[in-house]
Amino acid sequence: MTSFSDNDILDTMASNPEAGFRKLLGAYKEPVYWHIRRITVVHHDAEDALQETFIRVFRNIGKFRRDMSLAAWVFRIASNEALRALDRRKDFHSPLDGATESAGIAADEYFDYSDLETVRLQRAIHSLPPKQQLAFNLRYYDEFDYAEIARITDSTVAAAKANYHAAKEKIIRFMNSHD
Known about the structure:
Layout: H1 6-15, H2 17-40, H3 43-60, H4 70-88, H5 116-126, H6 130-140, H7 146-153, H8 157-177
Helix pairs in contact: 1-2, 2-3, 2-4, 3-4, 4-7, 5-8, 6-7, 6-8, 7-8
């Protein structure tokens, strides 16, 4: 995921915050954006949450404890910011809502809504409770192990596994019922 090691990023941030922050952005900006985007769906909200994520990371880097990976810490902050973005938008209507097999919906420059299987998968994911949605996204898309998912979601490894497997089963049922 990163082109720099966590230690390299952290050491650089300690000695030269601006250069360290550039390394951090280089390593994490794109994967964190897509993590947030899968939660918020809308590019504008993902951009806002991404900006807030890195502001929080920069302001709180001195509080980072190396008992978890930097990636897990950054993704934890990003997950919280993505969920805050959804809370701010109480009237949330996903671009995925109303997309039909026959009509589809217009693609934006970041996501191809004409790929109907992807739209169905995203609908299935968005039908999940937040903890299951996060566990599924972190495991399936971001390829975190269960221990890291537990750290990111502030849960146990057993809960991370249970949330992922419950999400997977619900997604399978959703996909099979919407054929």
